[in-house]
Amino acid sequence: MDLVPALEEPLKKVLGPPTAKVMAESLGLHTVGDLLHHYPRRYEERGQLTHLAELPMDEHVTVVAMVADARLHTFASARAPRGKGQRLEVTITDGSGRLQLVFFGNGVHKPHKELLPGTRAMFAGKVSLFNRRLQLAHPAYELLRGDSEETVETWAGALIPIYPATAKLESWKIGKAIQTVLPSAQEALDPLPATLREGRGLVTLPEALLKIHQPHTKADIADARSRLKWDEAFVLQVALARRRHADAQLPAVARKPKPDGLLTAFDDRLPFTLTEGQRKVSKEIFDDLATEHPMHRLLQGEVGSGKTMVALRAMLATVDAGGQAAMLAPTEVLAQQHHRSVVEMMGELAEGGMLGGSEHATKVVLLTGSMGTAARRQAMLDLATGEAGIVIGTHALIEDKVQFHDLGLVVVDEQHRFGVEQRDALRGKGKQPPHLLVMTATPIPRTVAMTVFGDLETSVLDQLPAGRSPIASHVVPAADKPHFLARAWERVREEVGKGHQAYVVCPRIGDEEDDPKKSGKKKSPEDEAEKRPPLAVLDVADQLAKGPLHGLRVEVLHGRMHPDDKDAVMRRFAAGDTDVLVATTVIEVGVNVPNATAMVIMDADRFGVSQLHQLRGRVGRGSAPGLCLLVSEMPEASAARQRLNAVASTLDGFELSRIDLEQRREGDVLGQAQSGARTSLRVLAVIEDEDVIAEAREEAAAVVAADPELTGLPALRTALDALLDEEREQYLEKG
């Protein structure tokens, strides 16, 4: 029978079932290869201690420190009523700070014997706060004793790997398990082509694995990391390069606008000139549409940079060329708004087939899930016959029943709201694959675009159209300075007094049933610290109408209202019949009310950086300057407040998206989860390693161009298969 390759050996066989079970459950590690790729988070030098002064709250930490003193106390408690309860308090120090360890009950005997003053050890546990002092309760510990044959110097200089650990599995236990499997590293298949590796002076994969887990010097760690970064970047970029290569083989109908057709008629009636950026990006899109391969382009631009105008011109060019264009919006509110603004911008050009319509006109239809049956049937008929050149809708467009006459272009608004499957289903509605334009208003740093959307060509709109006003943003610390909040409401009244309008945004609606399932979820330390639920639209609107904004016309808007009611509220606000709109993030994208100049975001710390930037873009859309107030009860020193300060300090969405990314990590860049701690990247940091990613992209493109099937690179194929497990392969396939 075939021997299992060493790196595919299940951990159960090598480490025994109990340890293997904990590794699988806590860290998702199943094979020897998985464990070898579980890299140290950092290294301790035995001679250099961790800074106790910088310990994070509520996190599992591993520290190297010396026992300063140890005291055993007895006390009376319910369990030990006659004063027989025992508590051992040990103070450890590393020269920068002190930390208290506590052990209770029967757990005091062993540490009482071993943790004598002067002893050095590694301690692991969860940092908590007791009587305003940091402490570790019942930490696990490992004494650091130099063996007799080891000299003190080599002992103190040794690098101790500290692994990402969990409560059930301390770093040193992971370290011991890795020492057990480390000999298998010799059999690791090297995915990098030899010419690439030698040309860049990178060590082999077995050597890199050995050096990252058992470094003798800091240079070893640097060698290992730069090699492993290349692996991650290169294999990922090969996956994306193969997608681009496969897409380039697909046929598509070239869509070239007629010289004096619908697009020309539209441009002639524009009351303003396009910005330099809009013209440049439009040219890139038109060049793509004119080829016989499907366009795959990502259009990213600042809030209010005029992306919709660029997308509309691409849609008109497609209609000119005899095709249909579909625009997919994430919500009904947004689909209705896009439809309204497109029809307004086109005027009689949107009245194809109607009396009074222009000769170049086409029909622009709306298709959403909540439309009446008759209206839906008519819209679907117009699409099937080709009467309607442009359709704007929600995912209702993707349903099987919807047929197109000749779908030539799909525009997807707000990439991050759309599942890949949905984009794929819509693309399947063309006779040949339609061209695809994805728009996002959340600017994405270049490296992320290369990593996450590496299969899309990217166009960037970074200048604002003339007439847009700057937005001043300020953090309002409601807990530290309540009078600042009172002043915020005065500012809102002042804006309304000048004839303007304002938004107040809250994180929740306020009529939710408390979901017992949700309440069981683990809370972050910041949530724990503040216990109260996020502020809700219905409560806040009520308090404002009776209190600080008494006498103003206050209305509410949220996602669970009936679509007709939402539309009516938005129309009243747009018409100036409402002074203050208290809303959830349904207003985040696409709402355009130039007369709204102020926005107050309640519990602003509950929103992400890009979401705050997105929301803020709703004000300052006219000639009057905008004001955005970020209200938070979080303390000055918290990470949440630093995030808000960053948003207040810059209007540059690209800069903010970098900050956001540095704080949140990259997320599982390939999988559906685009944020949070689950990252498929172990050593590659998308922001810091820009140059590696850019170079890997070039190398990958060259390799795939020469050998699309990678027949000459079996080890690279294997690495690719490991990266693209089934789910991700499909995810990439559907792109």
Structure description:
The longest helix has 32 residues. Helix 8 packs across helix 9, helix 9 crosses helix 26 and helix 11 packs parallel to helix 12. The C terminus is likely disordered. Helix content is 39%, strand content 18%. The chain has 27 helices and 21 strands. The strands form four sheets. The protein has a seven-stranded parallel β-sheet with strand order 11-12-10-13-14-9-15, with helices on both faces. It has a six-stranded parallel β-sheet with strand order 16-21-20-17-19-18, sandwiched between helices. It has 735 residues and is an alpha/beta fold. Strand 3 and strand 4 form a beta hairpin.
- Tell me the number of helical segments per DSSP (H or I, 4 or more residues long): 27
Structural class, by secondary structure, is: alpha/beta
- Shape, please? globular
Biggest β-sheet description: 7 strands, parallel
User: Taking Cα atoms only, what radius of gyration do you get, to the nearest Å?
Assistant: 30 Å
Quaternary structure state of the chains depicted: single chain
> Average pLDDT value?
81
Note the gap between the termini: 40 Å
